[in-house]
Amino acid sequence: MKRAKATALTAIAAALLALVLGAALLALRGPEVPVLKVSSQPFQVRVRADGVLKAIDSTPVSTPISAGASMTIAWIVDDGTFVRKGDLIARFDPTDFEKGLRDGQADEAMAKDKIAKAKAQSQSVNVGLDLDASMAKRDMAHAKAFQTKDEHIFSRFEIATSLMDTELAQSRADYAQEMKKAKGTLARTEIDLYAIEAQKADRDVKRAEASYNACEVRAPHDGVVILQRDWRQELPRPGKVVWPGQKLAEIPKPGGLQAEVYVLEADAGGLAVGQRAEAEPFGYYGAPVAAVVSMVDTLARPRFPSVPVQYFGATLKFVGKVPDSLVPGQRIQAVILIADLKDVLVVPRQAVFQRDGHAVVYKKGIMGSFKPVPVTLGQGAPGRVVVKEGLEASDVVALVDPATAKAADAEASNRAGPSVGGAP
User: Fold this and answer.
1) Structural contact between residues 386 and 398, judged by C-beta atoms closer than 8 angstroms
2) Alpha-carbon radius of gyration of the chain
């Protein structure tokens, strides 16, 4: 009986001792901190992009430069229409050009009438001045023939009057000649001005004729018409005003396809020429088509005018055979491999903290304590980042700030009440 009682007391004492030792060890160990063992592993960064298929070489279809003015689209083929050489692609409204042609022809006819009138008036004036000059010459000849000079026969008044008649006739003849020259010069100047008006009207007529003749755009060769979007991302349509030389569409030439894609500016870090990619065109159910990045824009720009989101444009060159079912203008999605590293140390981004402007991780020591260790970071991906220096494989790092975890544990203990053996 006494032995059983002693055995029970010994068991209770051992249990209490184990409980006290466990509590002491728990207090020494501190709060639970989630950790991760660092290991060497492969690391890849992939970004998504979307865009359209484009022909490597194509013929642009533009509004004729000879139009010389803005034009309104009256009709245009549907996007993706197959056309033969010489087929009509677009027709423009000729109303303004017809009016300009009529106005130019009217101005030209009026200028020619003015020239004819000026020539007729000049000829009439010349005839009148010639008559005046001939009459003045006859009067001068008559005055000279019958001029009174004998002072013994005629009085001084008669002699003076005869001399004045002679000089007056001479002056009238000279005046007629000078007036003929002046009127002739004035008539030629007026005719030249009307000729300038006629030339201007003729140019207007030729411009209007060129614009009228440019109201139809036809296909330069066989192919599929791919309509081009403007800066508002709108396709050309009837009623839209376009300018001379503005690109309306393009007709791809045989010889291959490429993809023009757009990558969000936030995802484009490290995007460069030569990186591998895989493209999946919409409506294509085969394996993804391998490609490489052949060109990257130097500056990001909005893809749509009303949306301020910035994108980097890139061109993908396909590797190997492109399926025959793919056509220009087809929408495409692509995955670009920006980074492909082997055997690197990778940690979650939540394990990296900023202290005094430097990146640190909390490395677990032998006694279970955590020490901040500066690290040099490499390439990153959503949720993960490469550690280039500062850690080694098999190191254990905290996934949260240990100080924050300790404070949270203390707060939880206070909410739970006094510990075992504490004051009531």
Assistant:
1) no
2) 50
Under DSSP, the state recorded for 28 is H
DSSP 407-423: HHHHHHHHHH-PPTTS-
Rounded CA separation 143/154 (Å): 15
CATH code: domain 30-42+342-416 is: 2.40.420.20
* Dihedral-angle region of residue 163 (phi above 0 means left; psi in -120 to 50 means alpha; beta otherwise): alpha
The amino acid present at 47, given as its one-letter code, is V
Q: Where in the chain is the domain with CATH 1.20.120?
A: 95-205
Q: Tokens 């009057």, residue? A: 161
Which tokens belong to 405?
């975890």
DSSP letters of 342-396? Answer: EEEEEEEGGG-EEETTEEEEEEE-TTS-EEEEE-EEEEEETTEEEEEES--TT-E
Q: What is the pLDDT along the chain (424 residues), one digit of tens a residue?
A: 555 555 655 656 555 555 555 544 444 455 577 888 888 889 888 899 999 888 888 889 998 887 777 889 999 999 888 899 999 999 998 887 777 778 878 887 887 887 888 778 777 777 777 777 777 777 667 666 666 666 666 667 766 776 777 777 777 777 777 777 777 788 788 888 888 888 888 887 777 777 777 788 999 988 888 888 887 778 899 999 998 888 999 898 877 889 999 999 988 888 999 999 999 888 777 788 899 999 999 999 988 877 889 999 999 999 988 887 788 888 899 999 988 888 888 889 888 998 888 899 888 887 778 888 899 998 888 788 888 888 888 888 888 888 776 665 555 555 655 544 444 3
Report how far Cα 390 is from the mean position of its chain's Cα atoms: 45
Q: Which of 131, 165, 124, 130 is nearest to 148 (CA)?
A: 165
List residues bridging with 359 in a β-sheet: 354
Beta-bridge partners for 224: 82
Strands 216-218 and 88-92: antiparallel
Whole-angstrom distance, CA of residue 325 vs CA of residue 37: 49
Burial class (CB in 10 A: 0-12, 13-18, 19+), 179: middle
Instruction: Return phi, psi of residue 245, to 5°.
Output: 85, -5
* CATH code of the domain made up of 95-205: 1.20.120
Helix (H, G, I), strand (E, B) or coil at 73: strand
Which residue spans of the chain are classified as CATH 2.40.420.20? 30-42+342-416
From the candidate CATH numbers 3.40.50.300, 3.50.50.60, 2.40.50.100, 1.10.220.110, the one assigned to the domain spanning 60-92+215-254: 2.40.50.100
Q: Which residue has the tokens 């000059």?
A: 133
